[in-house]
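hey m, so remember when u said the tokens were messed up on ur end? i reran from scratch. heres the input so u can diff it against urs
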Amino acid sequence: MKKAIIIAALAFVSLANAQKGSVLVAGNIGYASQNTGDLKANYFEFAPKVGYQFSDNMTVGIETAVGSSKNSDRVGNVIVEHKENDFRLGAFLRYSQPLAGVFSIFGDLGVGMQSAKSSNNIPFSKEIKGDGFYIGLVPAVGVDLKKGFCLNFSIGGLGYDSLKNDGASDATNTFAFTFGKQASVGISKNF
């Protein structure tokens, strides 16, 4: 039993030290689709990250997200299609802590700027553009798959964002507490 504890402790320490000075590449891809008769809604998002692990537990880097949604709504006998494209670019700070075996927990704090552009198929309507900022905290669990690959699982987070459309007098401010309401699965690789 003592030998097993010593071997596990050595493996734990070597795993933690192997990450210092490495480059982290991570990301999520999301897709959602909903159909009700002839009304449709689709959403796609790609969110990559690149960071440098400057200590055994801390990583700092750049994150971005590109999203696109398209949905339709019935107004009388006419189907109106709405399209929106959004973009985020910011920095993140990750604190990670290895657990027993292949598991680790981590939290990502991200902050940055965002922009959005929306339009619809109504004649003579104009495109609406907006920009603002975001901040978010996402806790997650990682499962080491060997050779620096890790599957990441989160079940929500905490976020605040502000988006002001061109010509609008006020910004739309959103606070989100999404623990248990959403889930995401991502993959990361340490080089």
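this time it looks ok to me. Residues 1-18 have pLDDT under 50 and may be disordered. if urs says something different then somethings off w ur setup not the seq
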